[in-house]
Amino acid sequence: MTIIAIIDYGSGNLRSVAKAFERIAQPGGARIEVTRSPAMLATASHIVLPGVGAFADCMAGLRSQGGMLETLQQEILQRKKWFLGICVGMQMLFERGHEHGVYEGLGWLKGEVVSLHTAHSTLKIPHMGWNTLEVARDHPLLRGIASGDHAYFVHGYHARCTDARDVIAATAYGQSIAAVVAKEHIMGTQFHPEKSQDVGLRLLSNFLSL
Fold first, then answer.
1. Which residue numbers are catalytic?
2. Which residue of 13, 58, 93, 156 lies most exposed, with the fewest beta carbons within 10 A?
3. CA 210 to centroid of chain Cα atoms
4. End-to-end distance of the chain based on CA atoms, in angstroms?
5. Contact 151/131 with Cβ under 8 angstroms?
6. Distance between CA 206 and CA 142 in Å, rounded?
7. Structural domains of the chain, count
8. What burial class does residue 111 get, using C-beta atoms within 10 Å of its C-beta: 0-12 exposed, 13-18 middle, 19+ buried?
């Protein structure tokens, strides 16, 4: 059975993420666990890291769960389990975040998380609402998702990727923004799939099927 561990480290959108997975899971085919237990990560086949709030607060929350960060590193980097970061959970994949200071991230992907600035005075920060996706390359996570499809974003910072190949889909908001990133078994979405209706459920279903 597929076991999805959604890490609870004090971030705010855990139940909505769990409910989205419950909608797409086949009866008896998947078990969805919202957990603070590092031991649960060891039993899971798929691990999800949601995130709402500031980069530093989310990293501090993850570190505050005794043994969680160390177990997460082991399960993802050594055992190479499927991983999905959502919103700030995606941003935490990178080396550093520049939100109210400079803070270390997980460093699994090369790049930094920086403030979203735009020269277009009509575009408000944070970037909030529906926006179109531009698929950069084929990937199993994006199966059935095409350029022009819409997803729901809420963020004032974005990932500036060192390696452009890690960006598998982008969106435009005064500049090109990494909307979906992937490197081998490690993936992330800047948008909220649990709020993105059919497109979001399709992406979660694709992740579930990996």
1. 87, 192, 194
2. 156
3. 16
4. 13
5. yes
6. 7
7. 1
8. buried
Q: Which of 188, 199, 150 is nearest to 49 (CA)?
A: 188
Domain residues for 92?
A: 2-101+110-209
pTM of the model: 0.96
- The Cα–Cα gap between 99 and 132 comes to 25
The residue type of 193 is: P
Domain CATH number, residue 82: 3.40.50.880
97, 109 Cβ separation under 8 angstroms:
no
| Token pair listed for 79 | 């055992």
In the block, residue with structure tokens 């500031």: 54
The structure tokens 């597929």 sit at 2
Q: Are 130 and 151 in contact (CB under 8 A)?
A: yes
**HSE (side-chain half, CA atoms, 13 Å) at 4:** 28
Q: How confident is the model at residue 27 (pLDDT cuts 50, 70, 90)?
A: confident
